[in-house]
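User: Fold this one for me? It's DUF2520 domain-containing protein.
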Amino acid sequence: MKATLNIVGGGRLGTTLGALAHASGRYRVGAVLCRERAHAEAAVALIGDGVPLCELAALPPAALTLIAVPDAAIAPVAAQLAAAGVLPAGAVAFHASGAGEASLLAPLAAQGVHCASLHPAFSFADPARARERFAGTLCAFEGDAAAQAPLYAFARAVGGEPFALAPGGKAAYHAALSVASNYLVSLLDLATRVAAEGGVDAGAAARLVGSLMQQTLDNARALGPVAALTGPIARGDDGTVARHLAVLAGEDAVAYRTLGRLTLALASAPDAAQRDRLTALLADQAGTANT
Ligand SMILES: NC(=O)c1ccc[n+]([C@@H]2O[C@H](COP(=O)([O-])OP(=O)(O)OC[C@H]3O[C@@H](n4cnc5c(N)ncnc54)[C@H](OP(=O)(O)O)[C@@H]3O)[C@@H](O)[C@H]2O)c1
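Assistant: Here's what I get for DUF2520 domain-containing protein.
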């Protein structure tokens, strides 16, 4: 028998997961709820199943309720759902925020609803495109242990690969994603600007840096970070590091030193004397004007 899935928030993520759940043949979409009726109708049309709704109190009974509203609206919507008293004890409610925890749904948990978060590490820019490419997406589960089995089954039915975070692990998980995704872009920009300062024209600098980063990422994923590490710090070449620092200023030098210290911790080749010289070069330079 198909389990019923309600979706509160028929936007990019809600519509995509709803369509994939329907297509799996294992779920029936009960209702799709938005504040604007036209949005709920459009979501139902894209999903191919479900009833469009605007009133929380009208939600039909469902085993799973996905709260797919913007992050800031998750806690208020959970409070409204609890006030409406529509989710029975023993049902599962979950949101898909990367940063927020299951505790955003606390008013529902207080009513005996099994609450969790299930975050797909995926960008749902366009629903049709997202549906085609979602297979194999890692989905981070966190929350009430009683919600784990039904949400793992849901994640697998839509083509995802579920895994569990440690209790309280959501902030570290999201920090890791931010470093991996956002800081990669900042590093690309930093390296491109520094190359341009050395006289490489802007187009060539972007290609030079981008292709080297791509190659290095491939190596690090294939070999692991320690084996993939090359360059002056890995070799213990403090003279080259000093020359780099001579042409870097401000936040660029701060970033170079900070990441350099993390790099030195990974490097196994430098001997004790090289390590000491590198440590001194890469130390924080608090109070100096040019670094
Ligand atoms: N987009 C992504 O790539 C992505 C990736 C991973 C996780 N997520 C997570 O998925 C969740 C949804 O993100 P999204 O990008 O799909 O959002 P979205 O495209 O902006 O859609 C939000 C939906 O929620 C409805 N909504 C907003 N406030 C509401 C309220 N108070 N009550 C009922 N419905 C409401 C909106 O319709 P009305 O305006 O008509 O109410 C809309 O249908 C967020 O928690 C986000 O962090 C998103």
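One thing worth pointing out: The pocket of NAP is lined by residues 8-14, 33-36, 39, 68-71, 73, 77, 95-98, 119-120, 122-124 (CB under 6 Å).
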